[in-house]
Write a structure and sequence with these properties.
about 15% helix; mRNA Triphosphatase Cet1, Chain A; alpha+beta; 4 helices; single chain
Length: about 200
């Protein structure tokens, strides 16, 4: 099991150009081509994953099915992302081609039966500075899957994530980060904006 450090930050859309100028000044390099990411997030009937994330409980988990619509392989992946005291790690399983039909429920041995809660789609850029990988998520659109018919909404922020080995002194980069460090979870933000709990 390989643990890593992740530092998630929320940035106002109006600061996007400033952020890109900063990473370029840091000699950032593109790691992968940009792509669209689509994720279906699951939670149990008590929304325990949401509450665990808000309260910062460890260990905690997020469960999602993810695909990349622009890729021709049309593959779907089940991802279980665990946050623990030691760091974060992710388990990924290839589900093959689901043809856009997602499982209605997923069973987890800790959270029990989990239903589809929200769909989140966004554009992702991949950068790297030294040994720190940076993902930049823009055009974040969310949809409430608890309702039969619902329109998508756009979030007013962009999401930045710094990822590196747990051995790397992430403070070296985070302390030099010229933006307000606001803890951010796309799932929790979507949950609140869509008033899922009501």
């Amino acid at each position: 099991m390989s643990f890593r450090i992740e530092h998630k930050i929320k940035i106002c859309k109006s600061l996007l150009i400033d952020f890109k100028s900063w990473i370029i000044a840091k000699d950032a390099k593109k790691l992968y081509p940009d792509r669209v990411v689509n994720s279906i997030y699951y939670d149990n009937y008590e929304y325990q994953m949401y509450h665990d994330s808000i309260e910062g409980i460890c260990p905690r988990k997020k469960i999602r099915i993810r695909n990349y619509p622009e890729l021709k392989d049309d593959l779907y992946y089940l991802e279980e992302k665990t946050s623990s005291i030691e760091g974060r790690f992710k388990k990924t399983r290839n589900l093959g081609n689901l043809k856009g039909i997602y499982p209605k429920t997923i069973f987890d041995k800790y959270y029990g039966i989990c239903d589809q809660i929200v769909e989140i789609t966004y554009d992702r850029e991949y950068w790297v500075i030294d040994k720190v990988r940076i993902t930049l998520d823009t055009n974040i659109n969310i949809r409430n899957l608890k309702k039969k018919i619902t329109d998508s909404l756009s979030l007013n922020n962009i999401a930045v994530e710094l990822k590196t080995s747990y051995k790397y002194p992430l403070d070296k980069l985070a302390n030099d980060f010229p933006f307000e460090n606001i803890r951010f979870s796309k799932y929790c933000e979507a949950f609140d904006v869509l008033n899922i709990h009501q």
